[in-house]
Amino acid sequence: MYLTIKETAEYLSIPESTVESLIQRRKIRAIHDGAEYLIYKEQFNTHLKQMEKYKHLVEEILNEPILEDLDVKDED
């Protein structure tokens, strides 16, 4: 499925100008049909899956309880 620049910006939750910049810098693959750029939606699946995986990992780390260190001595 192909998306326009506007649809891609909405899908990725970023401004249209950012999508255009990424296309110009060849960070996003796109084809030009003479009138507008079309972006293949499936190229983002791996990235979005990785971001979800990292988000879950960070949440696990932040929710992990901090254990008391047995070697710490109160010297007061």
UniProtKB/TrEMBL annotation:
Keywords, comma-separated and alphabetical: DNA-binding
Annotated organism of origin: Neobacillus pocheonensis
GO terms for MF: DNA binding
Protein name: Excisionase family DNA-binding protein
Helix-turn-helix domain mapped to chain residues: 2-50
